[in-house]
Design brief:
105 residues; mainly alpha
Length: 105
């Protein structure tokens, strides 16, 4: 599979969601973000041996959990018609300016 731009990812997600009766209500999508973030935290805790999983629990991939979280975030951005690429550029400029000398030793 080819690599995608953020815009292409937003379009792919939208195309899929449109075949599934549209987006969930915003608070349901936010709950999905929270759920996926919790699953990511669980995997990181297990990987870092902070909280070992039970032998009956399925081992998941951190990359997969990150992608699930991204999917949920993209759903919210699409629902509100937010161009993540444009917003991300602004965020990077903010961090670069604000934190320019912040972490230098």
């Amino acid at each position: 599979m080819k690599e995608f731009t953020i815009k292409e990812i937003q379009e792919l997600v939208d195309d899929l969601i449109q075949t599934m009766n549209g987006y969930w209500p915003p608070l349901a999508m936010l709950a999905s973000v929270t759920e996926e973030l919790g699953e990511l935290a669980r995997e990181i805790n297990a990987l870092e041996k902070i909280k070992i999983k039970k032998s009956s629990e399925i081992k998941k991939n951190i990359g997969e959990e990150l992608a699930d979280l991204l999917f949920s975030i993209i759903c919210i951005s699409n629902f509100y018609k937010i161009d993540i690429n444009s917003e991300f550029k602004q965020v990077m400029e903010k961090y670069q300016k604000r934190d320019k000398n912040r972490f230098l030793n």
